[in-house]
Amino acid sequence: MSSQIYPGSYPSDSGPAEPPSSGKAITSLVLGICSLFLWLCPLAGLPVSIIGLVMGIQGVRQRSSGMAIAGIILSAIGLLATLVNAAIGAYLGATGQLFPPAPDGA
User: Fold this and answer.
1) 102 is a domain residue
2) Model pLDDT, residue 34
């Protein structure tokens, strides 16, 4: 059978299909979003942010993906917020302002 193209129809082979999104890019985006919430607890926010950054960089190297770039940006913001929160907590703890001394009558 010959493949005939009728007027108003398109050929069945319209070119190469677009490659699917990288799993690392999706992981980076999800971890970047999670890091925006986990910065409140630096022990949880720090590893999530760092893993999100690493996965985003690997995702960009595999394919130029907007999701990987968004994951890198969100993870970087989460990492910065986590480090600022940890620094403020360390300062307040070192100066005794985090837990003020109990009153003398207690």
Assistant:
1) no
2) 95
Burial of 83 (0-12, 13-18, 19+ CB in 10 A): middle
Mean per-residue pLDDT pooled into runs of 10, the chain (106 residues): 61 58 87 93 92 93 84 96 94 83 70
Whose structure tokens read 């969100």?
74
Asked if residue 53 belongs to a domain, the reply is: yes
The burial of 70, by beta-carbon neighbours within 10 Å (0-12 exposed, 13-18 middle, 19 or more buried), is given as: middle
Domain count of the fold of the chain: 1
In order of 3, 54, 80, 86, 95, the CA distances from 90 in angstroms are 73, 26, 15, 6, 9
Q: How far is CA 57 from the centre of its chain?
A: 11
Domain of residue 55: give its range.
Answer: 23-95
pLDDT of 99: 76
Give the pLDDT score at 63.
73
Q: Which residue matches tokens 């970047």?
A: 32
Alpha-helix residue ranges (DSSP H) falling in the chain? 23-38, 42-62, 66-95
